[in-house]
Amino acid sequence: MIYKQLQEPTRNEQIAVSTTSKVVSEARNQLNERKVIVLRNTSDNDADIITINLGFNEATSNNGIVLKRNEAFTDSSETGYKAYQGAITGICATANGKLSIFER
What is the dihedral of CA 16, 44, 85, 32, to 10 degrees? Predict the structure, then answer.
C-alpha cells in the first residue's frame, strides 16, 4: 500500500493593490482555519503605502494597519489564541502597490 503525504494548503503570492479597496484574503471557516498570515508591502516606491483592514469594512488609506515599503503585518495562532479568521482588505495610496502574501 502506498501512502501519499498530505500537505497543508499554503499561499505564497504577490498581488497588485491600487487606490480601490480589494479583498486580499478571503474569510476562513472552521473547516479551513487560518493559522498564519504575513502581509508585506513589496512595492517599488516609498509613495506606495498600503493600508490593511481587518473586518467588515473596506480598507481606506491611512485608516487601519499602515504598511510603508518593506513593512509587514503578521498574525498567527498560538496556544490560547486563534489568528484572525475574517476577510482582509487592502488599499494603496498609489495605483502601483505590491503586496506579498504568505498564508496557511
Answer: 70
Which CATH architecture fits 11-103? Sandwich (2.60)
User: How far apart, in whole angstroms, are the C-alpha atoms of residue 94 and residue 103?
Assistant: 25
If you search the block for the grid coordinates 489564541, which residue do you land on?
81
Give 31-40 pLDDT, tens digit per residue. Answer: 889 999 999 9
pLDDT 10s digits, 15-66: 999 999 999 999 998 888 999 999 999 999 999 999 999 988 899 999 999 9
